[in-house]
Amino acid sequence: TSDDPAAVTIFGYCHAFQRWFEIPESEAGGEGQNTANAAASIDIGNIASTPANQVPSDREYRRYEIVGIDRVAFVNGTPTEVNVFAACSTF
To answer: What is the pLDDT of residues 68-85, one digit of tens each?
Structure first.
């Protein structure tokens, strides 16, 4: 374990192409700003606490466009367990 933050990478699967690919973070104008850099950094020291014990400043908000994506995968670059929560909308 190191003190460097881990990164969670978001991948999408397209059934038509039968391929997985990295989904870039949305940068669409006028839709609000993401609260973190492009790589989803994880606070290793905060991972052991349950999500209910984390405060909003311990969390990061990110938005990804998944139009045409059939599956989404959250991949952590380290063996450390990470809690990832996702929500989607059909609007």
So the answer is: 899 999 888 777 777 788
